[in-house]
Structure formats: C-alpha cells, structure tokens
Amino acid sequence: MDCRKPRRSDQVETVDIAISKMTAIYLPLRATTLVAAILFGLAGFDAPAMAQSVVVLVNGEPITSLDIEQRGKLTMLTTHKQASRQELIDELIDEKVKIKEAKRFGVDPTSSDIDQSYAGMAQRMRISSEQLTKTLEAQGIRPETLKSRIKADMVWGSLVRGRYKESLQIGEKDVAAAVREKGEEKLEVEAHEYKMRPVVLIVPRGSPLSAYEQRKKEAESLRERVQSCDEANNYFKSIANAAIRDLVVKTSADIPETLRGVLDNTAVGRMTPPEITKQGVEMVALCARNKTTIDTPKKKEMRDKMFVEKYEAKSKSYLQEVRRGAMIEYR
User: Fold this and answer.
1) What is the topology classification, in CATH, of domain 191-292?
2) Consecutive H or E run containing 198
3) CATH 3.10.50.40 intervals, the chain
4) How does DSSP assign 267-295, residue by residue?
5) Residues 6+ apart with CB under 8 A from 234
6) What pTM, to 2 d.p., does this model score?
7) How confident is the model at residue 49, as a pLDDT?
8) What are 107-126's pLDDT values in tens digits?
9) Could you say which architecture CATH assigns to the domain 18-165+326-330?
10) Could you report the per-residue pLDDT of 257-279, keeping only the tens digit for each?
11) 63, 152 in Cβ contact below 8 A?
C-alpha cells in the first residue's frame, strides 16, 4: 500500500497501436494531437538533463527525477499543457503497476513489438522511425520515454480486454436502444457490403508530374473499357508496371463517407475514377455491392462509443484496485 497518499490523476490514457498487428484491438490515442505536436515541435526544451535521483519506488522499481523530467517534456509536447510534478509521478506509477500486473498474466511484449508500434506511429506521421527519433531528441526527449508509454498502454489494453472480454461486449439491443434514445433512427440508412479489387498503375518516386498525368490518361482509357472484375484482372495483369490486388471485402461502416459515395455511384463491374497517390495512379474495381444487416455507420459509431465508455470505466476501477495492492514508497 502507499506509504504516502499522493494526489491521483483520474485519467487513464490509451494508445492507438493497431498498427502492431497484435491480437488485441486497442483504443486510439489522440493521434492527431500527438502527430501535430511532434511534427511541429515546441521550443524551450534545450535545458540539460537533471541529475538522476530516485524519487519513488514502485514494487521495488525506481522512478527517477530524470524520468519525471522526461515525462514532463513529452506531456507538454503532446498536450501543450504543463502537468504538475505529482501528476507526472502518478502517471509513471500507473505505468509501473500496469506493466507488473500484465506480466502476472503473461502479457509481456518484446522489444521488437514495442519498436514495431513506435515505427507504426512514425508511419502515421509519414516519417521514418529514425526521423521520429531525431524529432524527439531535438526537443530533449529520449525515444525510450515515448516507448515506455507505448508499452504500458499496449499491455494494459490487452490485459483489460482479455480479463473483462465478456463484460465489455455491446449487445445489438443495447445499440439499437441507444440509437432510439438519441432519436437517430432516421439516420439508420441501409448498409452495403462491398467487394473490391484495388488497382494501381505504378509511377516511380521522383517522376515528374507529366508521368503521373500520362498514367492517369491511361487509367481513364482502361476504365472506359473494363466491364467486370474478371476483365480488370486480365487487363491489369498484362500491363507493364501495373498491379491488381486481391479481393477486399468491406461494409459501409468500415469505409469513410466520401469513399462510400464514390462506390455507391459506381456501377458493379466498373471502376472508380483514377486518383493520384504516392504509389502512382490508383482505382478500385467494384466487383459486388450487396445490402447487409451488419452495422450501419451510425450504429457502428454508437457501438464504438459505448465500448469506449465501458472500457474506460473498467480500466479505471481495475487500475485503482491494482494500485491499492502496490508497494509505493516515496524517498
């Protein structure tokens, strides 16, 4: 139990690590805030690191003054707010007890898993892991500080979902009732299941704009000719520097509204308008569009919201329970 009762922070942060391809499904970190903050940076982080001294022992593991200083910089970078020293200490304590509790149940990601999540975060920012590391270091933040937070949120998300899987489930009746309560039945537009084959006409990186425009004209010509997914497969397998990918199946709830509009306005067997991307010129061959009883976008939004509320409540109560059983000694 605590040797001294510190002020607690009620907020339990979670991180989006879906890109790690682990079996659990993780809640999103406020990724846009983190991406923007790290990309544009903050000034004033050039002060030399404090000398390390142990401030708190959590189940025998130290939290040092340097840990607190580093977490303060990361928090300022990602939230643009100055956290109090006790808030930073509480956050670090929470992470220690989360990792220890997860290990107790065999949830212990490898360094490779953490590096993969770190790389995924960099990828979402459209930069490399090395560039992310340099950006953090330019702000006086060690990459290990961010990786430590990633690890704690990763194991805790997996642990909470694993231990409380049944109680976190959201029933169909509960979703329908929540939609009715909000008076949003009219937004329950019919949902579709789309079967698609993405196509790309490859343009080498660094090519001039004229190369993209030439391939776009080629794509428009092919789009006029293609009448089925089989034809698309035959055409694009025979064209140089082109590829047609395997069948992809998505529902309305899985697709952004703008893309749904494009697909709904595309005849089955035909192709969507060409779009210039980093790969080259891309289109989608629409192989089938069928009505489905799977979640509509509005129901999915409601289901996700209800899940997050349940998860956060369970996560908070579980963390409080684990902290009460931890040996926390202030030095």
Assistant:
1) Chitinase A; domain 3 (3.10.50)
2) strand 191-202
3) 191-292
4) -TTSBPPPEE-SSEEEEEEEEEEEEE-S-
5) none
6) 0.58
7) 41
8) 999 999 999 999 999 988 88
9) Orthogonal Bundle (1.10)
10) 788 889 989 999 999 999 999 88
11) no
Decide: 246 and 190 in contact? Cβ < 8 Å.
no
Distance CA 208, CA 195 (A): 33
Instruction: Check: CB of residue 138 under 8 Å from CB of residue 41.
Output: yes
Q: Binning pLDDT at 50, 70 and 90, where does residue 51 land?
A: low
Is the pLDDT at 47 greater than 60? The verdict is no
> What pairs with residue 250 in β-bridges?
194
CB 115 within 8 A of CB 150: no
Q: Are 190 and 296 in contact (CB under 8 A)?
A: yes
Question: 248, 162 in Cβ contact below 8 A?
Answer: no
Side by side, the strands of the sheet bearing 54-58 are 61-64, 54-58, 328-330
Dihedral over Cα of 298, 11, 43, 31: its sign: negative
What are 117's two structure tokens? 């999540």
CA 81 to each of CA 30, 77, 88, 105, 237: distance values in angstroms, whole numbers, following the listed order: 14, 8, 12, 35, 53
Residue with tokens 């953490």: 114
Q: And the tokens for 50?
A: 């404090």
Cross-strand bridge partners of residue 196: 248, 286
Residue 144: Cβ within 10 Å count: 14
Tokens 């040797």 sit on residue: 3
Q: Under a CB-based contact definition with an 8 Å cutoff, are residues 105 and 162 in contact?
A: yes
User: Which one has a higher pLDDT value, 12 or 28?
Assistant: 28
Structure tokens at 140: 């006086």
